[in-house]
Amino acid sequence: MAMGYSDAVMDHFINPRNVGKMDNADGVGEVGNARCGDIMKIYLRVEEGVITDVKFNTFGCASAIATSSMATELIKGKPIADALKLTNQAVVDALDGLPSVKIHCSVLAEEAIKAAVKDYYDRHGVEYDAELFAGLGEEHEEAPEE
User: What is the pTM of this model?
Assistant: First the structure.
């Protein structure tokens, strides 16, 4: 385990899945954390209500890249409504954990997915409960350095 990172985190950092930009995406979400400088952008391609392709661009640390990569893997091939069920804890669990000071990266990954789904809904006139996206993009406190 390098610097407290699991093998899964290191794998998704060194060999990120679904990295890149998507032209003519059906939904795009971008979130960032001004305190740490991480920025995540998620692109969705949706066909018949299913996420058929997903890409990401992330500017940030190893944890930011790994959580973006894992989050895209967890929603690819799923109904778009299921993407809203993705939690930061599910991303952390799929990566076999993150250092406590890096949990905010998983929160950004969850929020980037939700922002992309919201953009998809807005572009395609899909009605939704605004509460599903409450707090999206708000600044979150980072865990103190240990």
Answer: 0.89
